[in-house]
Amino acid sequence: MNTQTVIACLVFCGICVLGSQAMAADSPVPEPFRGFDDTSQYTIKYDDLTNVLKTVVVDVGRSTREKAAPSHAATGTRMKTSVKRSTINEGNRFYYETFSNNEEAQALLRGIQKSLEQVPAEVPLKFFSRDEQLAYWLNLYNVTVLNEIIKVYPKRNLKKLMAGKKSIQSKKILDVAGIPLSLDDIQYTILKNNYDSNPLILYGLYQGYIGGPNIRKRAYTGNDVWRALKNNANEFINSNRGTYSQDEKVFRVSSFYERNKAYFSDFTDDLTEHLMDYIEGDERVELRSASKLRANIDDWTVTDLGGTYRDLGASFADNNAALLNAMVGTTPADNNLDITSPGGPTMGAAVGYGSVAVTTKAQTLNRFSPELLMQLKELNIRRENRNAENARVTIEELGEVPVESGTDSEPGKKDNN
Question: Is the domain of 130 the same as that of 160?
Fold first, then answer.
């Protein structure tokens, strides 16, 4: 085989690889995950996940955009921990420390993930509204991320885990309704296509590192999902880890946006327009006047409470989680959004809770309402009767709720009725 032939083969193979990647990015939503019923009153319960989050998530409050004080070497050593002073005290924290080497607590969280994976196999998602399905996918995505990070904790820098060549994002680590799915499949195929690339969705996808959107103290629900996403967007955009003015010409934004360019058709113009919907203070004026966006803000530090910060030779009880000293709730006083007292501290008893408390609070539950369970029972009776009459039955004969058009509560959606 001559050199030209070899080169031609390599070029052809390269085109095939690129073509397959493009096809994967644009692949249609799998059939079990299509269709909505926006007249549906059925809901999915997440009491178990909420109980865990209430226990082990620490709300650190809105960013003040102040930099943390410089770190100093502790007594007895010349070494000190390197941190990004502009972002280190931002972003809610998950108490990964209580899951480290704790099989009981780990099994609890894995059980919640497996239970969520089984939902579409028990009840077709088309039974539920758009908002209910969105809450489902966000909760499944986030609990999966938590479980994957727990596997490698106390790993401090999550860049390779979440964005490297061997990142968990593209691995088929989920089995939903018999279909292998990756986190990328949820984010770039199901959510992107089903919700018209709405960038608000990005703020519901917890990444595990400080430079990403917040993890909340309760699970998403269909009733509050868009309000919760707006709250997360507001918090992230008005923080140093989300946006930061460099000078009058250049406005810096999180590299998280760069990694999610697929949600912005014209990256600079669409992202600027999106940010202007939420940005406040001096940064709003600076964003409007800047001629260039630079997506180079990042902080890959895991969002733990300080368990990955080594006490280097110190003989004193230094506080390696100073962010716990001053906490203000980021969630408005709304009973539908958060169970903490209005305006009060949200740390609660998160720190110090062990696996016993976590498992006590996260009871096993049936995820479906009594009304839906009754309908499923009736469908099962019909199926058995038809089996008796015809000796066979098809999916179409199960009497599924038809998909009907309804009014979307998603921002930007119009009622076409």
Answer: yes
